[in-house]
Amino acid sequence: MERCASVVMITDADSPSGKAFIREFAGSGAGLVLGSPSGGSEIEAELRIVDAAGAKALVANADLTSREEVALLLEQARHQLGPVDVLIHNNDHYIPALTEDCEERDFAAVMEANAKTAFLCAQAVGKQMAELEHGSIVFLTSVHAEKPTGSSFAYSASKGAVKMLAKEAALYLGRFGIRVNTIEMGPVEGDPDRFRSPFSTLYDNYRYKVPSGELGSYRDAAAIARFLVSEEARYLNGADIRLDGGFLLHYMDHKMKRPRSGDGT
User: Where is coiled-coil annotated (predicted)?
Assistant: First the structure.
C-alpha cells in the first residue's frame, strides 16, 4: 500500500461545504476519506475531479454517532490510504427548535449530528495523530456558537459545544504537535429561510448587514481550512476564525450598504 502524502477526512462530503472542501483538497495530492450519507451519489461531480487530479478517495456511508463505525472507517482508511492526519468536521444539522417548545427528540438529534460526531471523530482521529505526533483538526462551526439564532437554540447549543470541544482538544492534543482550530461561518445564500425567526430580525435583509454587501461562500471556508492545516499556520492552535464578512458587527439597518437605485442615487 502506497501511503498518500496527507490523508484528509471530511465528515459530511455531501453538504455544500463538503463539496467545497473536496474541490479544495483534490489537487493537493491528499488521500480523501469522505463521509457520504448518499454513498457517493451526491458527490459524483466532485469524485470526477478527485479522479482527474490523480488523487485517491475512500467513500463511506458511516454512522459517525457510533464509536464502532468511526473506528472501522479509520481502520479502512489506514489500510487503503494511510492514517488520517487532517480532520475536517463540517456536520451542520439544523432543526427549528425554540427554547419554549423544542421537542426532546429534536434537541437530541441536533446535538448528536453536530456535537457527538465532533467528539467521537476528534477523539478517534486524535489518538491516531498523537501516535504520529502530527496532525491538524478543523471544525467548521457557525457564528451562532456565540450569537443566538432566534430560531434554534439546539443548533446554537451544538455549535457552542463544538467550539469548546475544540478548545479542550487544542489544549490536550497540542502537546503532541496537533493543532485544533475552528472556522465560524457567517451567512451564505439560503440562510434567511433556514434561520427564520418569529422574534429576531437578525436575518432580515441579512445580505446588506455584511458591511461590503457581498456574501461569502463555502469556497472561502475551504481556502481558510487549507491554510489552517498548512505549515504556514503552524502557530495557530485553539483559534476561532470568524468568517462572516463583518456580519456580527452590524448595528443599524438604515446604514446598510444597499445596491444603488436605477437613477444612480
Answer: none
